[in-house]
Amino acid sequence: MRRTRITFRSARFCLICTILALIFVAPAYPQHKVKLQPGAKGTQCLKCHEDLAKASKQRSVHPLLKKGDCTACHDPHTSNHKNLLISDVNTLCRSCHQQVLPDKARSVHQVVVEGNCQTCHNSHGSDNSFILKKSGNALCVECHQDIGTMAQNVQYKHEPLLKDKGCLNCHNPHASTRADYLLKNTVPALCTECHKTNRPNFAKRHMNYKVDDSNCDSCHSTHGSNRRGILYDDVHKPVAEKKCDQCHPGAGSANALQTKKQGALLCRDCHQTMIEETFKKNRVHWPVADKTGCLNCHNPHGAKEKKLLKDSQVKVCGQCHADTVELQKWSKENPKNKNLCAPVKKGDCVACHAPHAADKVLLITQENISIDLCGKCHEWQSHSTHPIGAKEIDQRNRNLTVECLSCHLACGTGNKPWMMPFETTYELCIQCHTERKR
Amino acid sequence: MNPVIKICVILAAGSMAALTPGKCLSVEVLKFRHETSIYADAKELGLKQPEGVACNAASDLIVADTGNARLLRYTFRDKAVGPEVREIKVPQLPYPMQVKLNSKDEIFVFDGKLRRIVRLTAAGKFSGYIDPPGLSPAAGQTPKRFHIDQNDNIYVLDIFSKQVIMMDSQGKLIKTIKFPTDDAYFSDLTVDARGHILLLDSINARVFSAAGQTATFAPLTENMKAYMRFPTSLTTDARGRIYLVDRNGGKIIILAQDGSYLARLSARGWKGGLLRYPAQMCLNADSEIFVADTNNNRVQIFSIIE
Q: What was the ipTM of the complex prediction?
């Protein structure tokens, strides 16, 4: 009998063949072996999922549903993801629709970042284009209610908002590679697509100042306002009176858009008393004294916020004091802080701090924090039975008296309750009442 | 000698600029001890929100007792505050905030109300104002902070023109150096033993450095917000270590000369050794640290354990 000798070389050859067979042949095995019914990838599904059968007849249908390929997104048997999806919903859509998040996006819609496509789109079908849940502005204002309400109620509306594409006349829905706020282009390039700057009427309305390259939204409220020309509701008096030359050289001047003076010096021409009072105080808020001066916090022309603030107090103050604003935000979100001090909850920094100058440390406006400041809202003497006031020496420090800030921190204490600097009341009390320490 | 540990940095991910792969650093392990606190003057009148401290080799300690509109001169020897306390009160100094001494023990004070640098003799008599050239107080242009180096040159932080003004001891302009970036808010400056000017950006908790001869600042550290909340003052010691006073965080952060993090001193609180809104600190020749613990109405003294 002939015996075959198995050499090392032939064994190696067999092993390689086996591996190659496993790689190339094995994956094909289930497809050939399982006897799938016709339409198993999709049309079979619709027999049970009648709602989806209806969806497939709507005006706008997802191409995969139209094609009857449910298994492109769903696993027919099991899945670790909701709705038997083949992968996490946050990444599934983007696996085909990569273009919604361009590489060099300057701004991206929050829902796109989070992968929450279903906030705006139905997955299967809709009577609105692009399988959108609602059509036009109605969809956007579901989240952006403040803008929706404002735009609806103002006397003068920005025309593109009312035209067919609504918000999408100026904004991209997913991302913008050109500008912030998902704008299709930068301001003023976007605005000048409609508002031609070479028209005589444009020049006349802008007092003949050459504002082609200026930031339109420094004066105009882009979604609408109650002032003609959609100027901000709160507009600087010289702007309202069209007295641009009060702060700027004449329109014909070579440096017409520069200001006549720099920093607080310019503002002092009108706000003399306020500026003089500011500089008489012991402590000035330093941004007032730099070259940008008042404009560190205020817009010179108009603003959404009162007192021409650039933004909400929390955002303006947070430009520099991000650490404190972070603490305030953290305190607000803390469920233990249901009774958070109202100014902290509202982010009303100026309820306690003078924004321009003060005689006290930390620009505190009042002489006595407990009585004059906290006492504005809290009846501090009836707040608790704990002795408090100028005669009560703090046991921890002989140069301090017991006051509100002996137990509470005014800007918030993050995840600690009652604006206390400690996790528990016990930890706070034993600071002084050491004999009660367990 | 301080105990010194040699650390070789293998990965630089997430570390500061000074830490580069494979770079070996000598990291000192610093320990501190709270020695004592100063609460009052000789008549037991309590300090009120002191914001400035300055010390010299002769064991003098000058305190800007800001809330009481005065300076106090103490001595600190052999870990104890001397019994003699001298009050310095001049009408030209209504709201003393930052204090510095020069090599002749003249006292320089930044006054918050006047927003001017006041010069006093060693005995505490008013001898004039230092008005940096180019800054017009009438136009609202004021110095923010200042420093005096070992040669008695005066450096002023000019936030209006975004520059450091360097003057000689008589206030004559030597040169100006522009701030390195607009993306910052500079609160203080100092000059280290090598003559490098250091600038402190409070918003991003960054330190910038300019070698004495150069006319530009370069970053010494990256954003160090992970270590501190809102540093507003800085100083250095003879070894080049940098001390940042974290006003909102109630602590002192110590960096090595290369800007790498070394240690933290104290924490926020009311008890002895803890700080609330500290404003300025100084070091004496014995490595003792004096901190103006503003909202605790005291000055605290720490020593570095050698």
A: 0.89
A422 to chain B nearest CA, in Å?
A: 11
Q: What is the mean pLDDT of chain B?
A: 90
C-alpha pair distances (Å), A14 with each of A162, A357, B80: 73, 87, 89
Q: Using beta carbons and an 8 Å cutoff, which residues of B are at the interface with A?
A: 39-40, 46-47, 49, 51, 66-67, 94-95, 112-113, 115, 139-142, 144, 159-162, 185, 187, 202-203, 225, 229-230, 248-249, 268-272, 277, 294-298
Give the pLDDT confidence score for residue A379 in this predicted structure. Answer: 76
**3-state DSSP assignment of residue B223:** coil
A1 touches chain B (CB under 8 A): no
At B10 the pLDDT is 32
| Residues of A in Cβ contact (< 8 Å) with B187 | 286
Mean pLDDT of A426-434: 94
Give the pLDDT of residue A8.
60
Of A289, A394, A421, the CB nearest to B140: A289
A382 to chain B, minimum CA–CA distance in Å? 25
- Is residue A220 very low, low, confident or very high in pLDDT (cuts 50, 70, 90)? very high
Contact A289 B144 (CB under 8 A): yes
- Vertex A200: Cα angle to A195 and A202 (nearest 5): 35
Q: What is the pLDDT of residues A192-201, one digit of tens each?
A: 999 999 999 9
